[in-house]
């Protein structure tokens, strides 16, 4: 058995002299030192030895194992170092190459326009109010003079979650919630920016989700002329000092009287072009004096207080401001479109 152990040792060390790869080293480890390896197979015969021979052969077996393991570890370390050196050589960096351009993200055009609208109205003494996008039917319709059987509800095809919960179709519920919190106190001067949802077919001018900014002012002696003055100031700051507006009679359930607001076309200066359909005017928002019933449901004395409200689509304003012809550009994440807008 002593001769067999010495022979296995010499055989293993000789094989290891010609091995350099990690895979071959592992294979030799298994071949000689594994559970079914050559050394293990020899040492299983120790049970047939005498009591005097067994310790001597056991000691020799340990020495043989140690010699083979030492050589295996030496070869493994050399193989690992060679692999690392080859990898570093293959991944060397050419410092003469030009650097990669660092790309900065741009502000989304809807963000730019929303913040500009907010800045304009903050400058006129308004504050920004927010509310939930998942809204109760009560706040979205009933408190705005739209009871459950009102035909005007058909004007806004809604996403209902339950019979009484829906995705808000406008930010007007924020106005009602704010008036409730004020508990009849004045003045109320707020704008309400946020996303709204309507069941609509997406095309160049419509989307099922879009952004609105609505405004509300409630106090004593608030008049239609105040509404016109505020909107004219907004239009001139947004589109230029030469901008004009006009109010046309319209209908909204929550305002009386109501008016559509048109903007003089900035493309042609009011002379008529394809953008304004050769009329010289472009419709931009709806407005009116807050309906007395809406004031009363929010806790205000409609005999003492009056107010005006208005609502505009941010996409509509952005399309006019930046001459964008398709609303879908705002949502398709096309970098060629988005990188046109200034980061600042």
UniProtKB/TrEMBL annotation:
The reaction(s) catalysed by this protein are:
tRNA(Phe) + L-phenylalanine + ATP = L-phenylalanyl-tRNA(Phe) + AMP + diphosphate + H(+)
Protein name stated in the entry: Phenylalanine--tRNA ligase alpha subunit
Q: Name one GO biological process term.
A: phenylalanyl-tRNA aminoacylation
Q: Which family does it belong to?
A: Belongs to the class-II aminoacyl-tRNA synthetase family. Phe-tRNA synthetase alpha subunit type 1 subfamily.
PANTHER family with a match to the protein in the record: PHENYLALANINE--TRNA LIGASE, MITOCHONDRIAL, PHENYLALANYL-TRNA SYNTHETASE
Q: Name one GO molecular function term.
A: ATP binding
Main subcellular location: cytoplasm
The listed locations are:
Cytoplasm
Q: Which cofactor does it need?
A: Mg(2+)
CC annotations in GO: cytoplasm
């Amino acid at each position: 058995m002593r001769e067999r152990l010495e022979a296995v040792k010499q055989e293993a060390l000789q094989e290891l002299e010609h091995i350099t790869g990690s895979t071959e080293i592992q294979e030799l480890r298994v071949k000689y030192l594994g559970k079914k390896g050559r050394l293990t197979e020899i040492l299983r015969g120790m049970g047939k030895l005498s009591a005097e021979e067994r310790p001597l052969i056991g000691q020799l077996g340990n020495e043989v194992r140690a010699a083979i393991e030492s050589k295996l570890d030496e070869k493994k370390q050399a193989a690992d170092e060679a692999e690392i050196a080859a990898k570093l050589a293959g991944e060397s960096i050419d410092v003469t190459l030009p650097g990669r351009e660092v790309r900065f993200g741009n502000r989304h055009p809807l963000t730019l326009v929303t913040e500009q609208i907010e800045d304009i109205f903050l400058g006129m003494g308004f504050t920004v109010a927010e509310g939930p996008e998942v809204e109760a039917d009560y706040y979205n319709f009933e408190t705005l003079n739209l009871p459950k059987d009102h035909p005007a509800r058909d004007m806004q095809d809604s996403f209902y979650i339950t019979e009484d919960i829906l995705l808000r179709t406008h930010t007007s519920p924020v106005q009602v919630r704010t008036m409730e919190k004020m508990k009849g106190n004045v003045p109320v001067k707020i704008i309400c920016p946020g996303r709204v949802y309507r069941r609509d077919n997406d095309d160049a001018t419509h989307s099922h989700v879009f952004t609105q900014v609505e405004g509300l002012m409630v106090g004593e002696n608030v008049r239609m002329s105040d509404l016109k003055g505020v909107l004219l100031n907004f239009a001139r700051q947004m589109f230029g000092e030469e901008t004009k507006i006009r109010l046309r009679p319209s209908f909204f359930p929550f305002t009386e009287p109501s008016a559509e607001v048109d903007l003089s076309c900035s493309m042609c200066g009011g002379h008529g072009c394809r953008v304004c359909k050769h009329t010289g005017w472009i419709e931009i928002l709806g407005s009116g004096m807050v309906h007395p019933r809406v004031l009363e449901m929010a806790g205000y004395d409609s005999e003492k207080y009056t107010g005006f409200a208005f609502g505009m689509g941010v996409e509509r304003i952005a399309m006019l401001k930046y001459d964008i012809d398709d609303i879908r550009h705002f949502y398709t994440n096309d970098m060629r479109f988005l990188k046109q807008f200034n980061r600042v």
